[in-house]
Amino acid sequence: MPSLLSPLPDARMGEAFTEVLTRPGVRVERIVSLGQATPPDAPMVQGWDEWVLLLAGSAGLRIGEGAEIALAPGDHLLIPAGTPHWVTHTAPDAPTVWLALHLD
After folding, report:
1. What sequence ranges are listed for the domain Cupin type-2 (predicted)?
2. DSSP 26-69
């Protein structure tokens, strides 16, 4: 049976995205980060809702004008379509593993 937590791709040079499942209107991907953050002047803005679940590691997210949200394994949240958001940090010494559900 496939695992979302092993084996993990090397994310030292950049986040690694793996498509897990695609169906009409829904896409699930695993994201592996290692010390990455979104540049302050380049927020991510998507044309679809994204629900994210942190599976391993630690991270920070800022959504819109809100304060940074610290995430630990098991934490999840919804990022509405069209909302600027930033990954403020991910753990630099161990992989951070996300499960992202993209909803068209």
Report:
1. 48-100
2. EEEEEEEESS----TTS-B--SSEEEEEEEES-EEEEETTSPPE
